[in-house]
Specification:
A: Aconitase, domain 3, five-stranded parallel β-sheet, B: alpha/beta, Aconitase, domain 4
Chain lengths: 473, 217
């Protein structure tokens, strides 16, 4: 059993009681909701004639299904319009704040929470979305929940959970040129497997993690779930506090910041904390990393060969064979030079301002390959506005990228942004499952935003280290 | 076992101590919830009717012709025990996945391993997710292949599965077993009864404003 970790402390601070079923009842500090997984929960609440217990600890937005092109109401997609209207109806008179498209604050739920300062260290944060682990970057205990649990949280302000083990993942050393947080997390999942984290929470630590900004930490925590860990976190530090100071929650409330800071400091993992497991990864050895298969654990450094399934552990062989057939890749080859048809820069993993800035630096003065359809889907309206203020939109559109409105978009293909037929995409998103981007034959290669930028320009998976950064944004 | 009925404000008292019925094997590791229910079927405001879309893209090609998949096979129609391999239900947290399986007719799952959010979602519906090692599961899958009408009995409390002449030991997560066996898996009702303690807990947290804490009912 772990002791003295942030996880243990935040758990204890939020534990109401142990339930008769053996689970712990935890108070939820922030409940984020969106249009796809909440309507059924509100329906169940109505059936039971119950009201939202803690509306002020709840915040809503639309991201999964909302169009990223024409957003005039009613939406052209009738199903999307129905879901949007349902959410609006559920929120009416509820006292729940709503970052809707008219507010200028709409965006992917895991982008808007941190940018508005809703996400804070030492909180418990839940949302009906598995990438809720993103918020762990701030030293929060954040995890995805199902719809029946959303009902629980709406009705009681609490969630029922079993305590898990804590695995510390220490990433040592300094990341190389062209290597980003995305490459770190793809490497971690590649090493520990897609179910390596089941039953665990991941604590990311070490020099390479501490050196990252909040955006990078969010990319890493975001994909904890792809490694089977429901939650992942980084201990809060000065980098965290600097970000928080700029948010709505604290920019005009320095006294509130000072009042809460001792709490944030108090929940940091103790120096003599005990973990259930510790894994060390050499950060300096990580290359730009991409997926070659159809799970986020099927990864390889850009210069590394795609593995022969027969060389893999027995339980991984069938999946690897099927994946290689689907992706049309051969063992022994590298992913460099793999032709792509679509470049997608977006998602809750990588659609923040820093991601767009870095990608733009490789795009400026270049053109998207003739055979590639490329799109940028900023993570939120604020990200989009800030990017436009810096002229990033012009860099992208001049190069041939489509500059779209914020949403989940082609990460999961619920709106019109989808792969067609057997198109291959270079994607900054988080899942390369078969069919994930909207087409059963579609092929997804996950990579960092700068690798997506490079692939968009060359039309194939490219080692970004061999390209020169042009812009000085 | 029947689908639980929720009545307003009350916990269903239903205990799920055992599940019996015929099996259906779906083979493969890392079967994610996008496979179980593709995202385009999530454009709904209720879970009703999701059963027909379970494994849709594995079952039908682009022209809606049936592909080879256990869920299409005549011999498995009416099955209620799904037998799967490792890391089943990984990926998206969508409860639509267990909802679709339940509405297709699945009452219990036996597998090598389940993703956590998926298993939690199953529990919220009163569906056991019991585990055994890889070899045991593959033997069971082979047996179900050959005996699609053969009865499988899952004893949640005793942590055993009986089929044919075999009885195998399985593992049921402690909290899951307790919740199912004692019929205390409606966590809303359980937690609602502690509203006073919840308010006290909220008051202790420095980041929760007093104004955000509801008055006692």
């Amino acid at each position: 059993m772990s002791q003295g970790t942030l996880y243990d402390k935040v758990w204890d601070r939020h534990k109401v009681t142990t339930l008769p079923n053996g689970q712990d009842q935890l108070f939820v500090g922030l409940h984020l909701i969106h249009e796809v997984t909440s309507p059924q929960a509100f329906g169940m609440l109505k059936e039971r004639d119950q009201e939202v217990a803690f509306p002020e600890r709840t915040h809503a937005t639309v991201d999964h299904i909302v169009p990223t092109g024409n957003r005039d109401r009613p939406f052209e997609d009738e199903a999307a319009e129905t879901m949007m209207a349902e959410l609006e109806e559920n929120l009416r008179g509820s006292g729940i704040d709503f970052s809707d498209p008219d507010s200028g604050n709409q965006g992917i739920v895991h982008v808007i929470g941190p940018e508005q300062g809703l996400t804070q260290p030492g909180m418990t944060i839940v949302c009906g979305d598995s990438h809720t682990s993103t918020h762990g970057a701030f030293g929060a205990l954040a995890f995805g929940i199902g719809t029946s649990q959303i009902r629980d949280v709406l009705a009681t302000g609490c969630v029922a959970m079993e305590k898990q083990k804590v695995r510390k993942i220490e990433v040592t050393g300094e990341l190389g040129e062209g290597v980003t947080a995305k490459d770190v997390i793809l490497t971690i999942i590649g090493e520990l497997g897609t179910d390596g984290g089941v039953g665990h929470v991941y604590e990311y630590a070490g020099e390479a993690i501490e050196d990252l900004g909040m955006e990078g930490r969010m990319s890493i925590c975001n994909m904890s779930i792809e490694g089977g860990a429901r939650a992942g976190y980084v201990n809060p530090d000065e980098t965290t506090y600097e970000w928080l100071k700029e948010t709505d929650a604290f920019e005009n409330a320095p006294e509130k910041f000072e009042r809460l800071k001792p709490y944030w400091e108090s929940i940091r993992t103790d120096d003599d904390a005990e973990y259930d497991d510790v894994v060390t990864i050499d950060g300096s050895a990580i290359e730009p990393t991409v997926t070659w298969g159809t799970t986020p654990g099927q990864t390889a450094g850009i210069t590394e060969p795609i593995p022969d399934p027969d060389d893999l552990p027995e339980e991984d062989r069938d999946t690897a064979k099927r994946a290689q057939k689907h992706m049309r890749v051969e063992p022994g080859d590298t992913m460099e030079g793999y032709d792509i048809d679509v470049a997608f820069l977006g998602s809750c993993t990588n659609a923040r301002l820093k991601d767009l800035r870095e990608a733009a630096a490789f795009v400026e003065g270049r053109e998207v390959d003739d055979d590639v359809r490329a799109m940028v889907v900023p993570g939120s309206q604020r990200v989009r506005d800030a990017a436009e203020a810096e002229g990033l939109d012009e860099i992208f559109t001049a190069a041939g990228f489509d500059w779209r409105e914020p949403g989940c978009s082609m990460c999961l293909g619920m709106n019109d942004d989808q792969l067609e037929g057997d198109e291959a995409s270079a994607s900054s998103s988080n899942r390369n499952f078969v069919g994930r981007q909207g087409s059963k034959e579609g092929r997804t290669v996950l990579m960092s935003p700068i690798m997506v930028a490079a692939a968009a320009v060359t039309g194939e998976v490219t080692d970004v280290r061999e390209m020169e950064e042009v812009a000085t944004v | 076992m029947s689908t639980p009925e929720f009545s307003a404000g009350e916990a269903p008292a239903e205990k799920v101590t055992e599940v019996s019925g015929t099996g259906i094997p779906v083979r493969g590791n890392d079967i994610d919830t996008d496979q179980i229910i593709p995202a385009r079927f999530l454009k709904v405001v209720t879970f009703d009717g999701l059963g027909q879309f379970a494994f849709f893209d594995q079952r039908f090609d682009d022209d809606d012709n049936e592909k080879d998949h256990p869920f299409n096979e005549e011999k498995y129609q009416g099955a209620n025990v799904l037998v799967v391999n490792a890391n089943f239900g990984c990926g998206s947290s969508r409860e639509h996945a267990p909802q679709a399986l339940m509405r297709w007719g699945i009452d219990a799952l036996i597998g090598e391993g389940f993703a956590e959010i998926f298993a939690g979602n199953c529990l919220a519906l009163g569906i056991p997710t019991v585990t055994a090692d890889s070899e045991t599961i593959q033997e069971l899958q082979d047996w179900v292949d050959e005996n699609p009408a053969g009865e499988i009995d899952i004893d949640v409390e005793a942590e055993t599965v009986t089929y044919g002449d075999n009885e195998i030991d399985v593992t049921v997560d402690d909290a899951q077993r307790k919740a199912l066996v004692e019929g205390v898996w409606d966590t809303t009702a359980l937690m609602k009864s502690n509203a006073g303690a919840v308010r006290d807990k909220a008051r202790e947290l420095p980041y929760v404003e007093d104004a955000a804490i509801p008055d006692a009912e």
